[in-house]
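Saturday, quiet lab. Running sequence design on the structure tokens for the scaffold JK sent over.
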């Protein structure tokens, strides 16, 4: 399984003690929403977890790789939180409008562990799933991962982790990445599809394997040459399949969750308001 912390970037900080770690986190630039910490033993990680609880600190442990002793920490900056919360809230609003508010459970940034012995821990940004099918610790069907100082390449590794760690219980991963320099927000919708076996090939486990597929890419660009500035969407509306979200066929008055171009433009404007 691809590991985000082992491939994301060279470690920026080597763990020495809890006090130094939290001091560094408190001094980070407002546009830095992640840091990779090296030399974090399982015992160190437990100590960091306890310190987070004691300080009521809202950092998230995006991934902890026990074998490599690497920890990727998310810092919930204003822009980072706006990126995923404003997107999730609009999706949830559309679900509520369809009458399924009581059939959908927001999970937030709950901690999950890969479904195999010694699996890595991970915490997403926003997530949710259908009730009662995905309650009481079950994996969500939808996960949103946001990045400001993180690249799309790094977020894609995280997407792979969700599909593999959940043993494919996660059905949709949305990536949202903020690029101040290019004045863009990029959305990617990822799902999984079965790989097609070669004609005449003997059926094996690998023949029935699945792989992540990029279903949609949407770019929202902010034009600051006009007053007031406007956000413009390419590639149309964001569409989330009902079957993937709710694990059942839609009823007569139900359908896919759609965020229109206008809704996406308002979403982007709300994110830029946090800059």
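Result came back. Writing it out in full:
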């Amino acid at each position: 399984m691809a590991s985000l912390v082992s491939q994301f970037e060279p470690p920026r900080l080597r763990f020495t003690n809890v006090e130094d770690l939290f001091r560094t986190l408190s001094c980070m630039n407002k546009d830095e929403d992640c840091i990779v910490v090296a030399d974090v033993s399982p015992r160190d990680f437990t100590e960091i977890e306890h310190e987070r609880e004691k300080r009521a600190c809202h950092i998230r442990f995006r991934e902890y790789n026990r074998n490599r002793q690497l920890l990727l920490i998310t810092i919930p900056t204003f822009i980072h939180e706006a990126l995923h919360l404003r997107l999730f809230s609009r999706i949830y609003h559309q679900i509520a409008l369809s009458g399924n508010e009581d059939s959908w459970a927001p999970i937030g940034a709950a901690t999950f562990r890969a479904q195999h012995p010694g699996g890595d821990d991970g915490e997403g940004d926003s997530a949710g799933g259908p009730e009662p099918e995905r309650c009481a610790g079950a994996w969500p069907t939808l996960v949103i991962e946001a990045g400001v100082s993180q690249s799309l390449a790094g977020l894609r590794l995280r997407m792979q982790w969700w599909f593999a760690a959940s043993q494919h219980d996660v059905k949709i991963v949305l990536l949202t990445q903020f690029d101040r320099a290019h004045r863009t927000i990029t959305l990617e919708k990822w799902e999984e599809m079965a790989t097609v076996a070669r004609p005449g090939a003997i059926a094996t486990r690998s023949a029935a394997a699945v792989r992540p597929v990029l279903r949609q890419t949407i770019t929202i660009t902010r034009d600051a040459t006009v007053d007031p500035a406007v956000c413009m969407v390419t590639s149309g509306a964001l569409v989330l399949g009902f079957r993937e979200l709710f694990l059942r066929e839609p009823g007569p008055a139900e359908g896919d969750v759609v965020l229109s171009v206008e809704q996406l433009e308002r979403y982007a404007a709300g994110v830029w308001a946090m800059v």
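Notes for JK: The first helix runs from residue 4 to 7. The CA atoms of residues 220 and 233 lie 4 Å apart. Ask whether to fix the surface positions before the next round.
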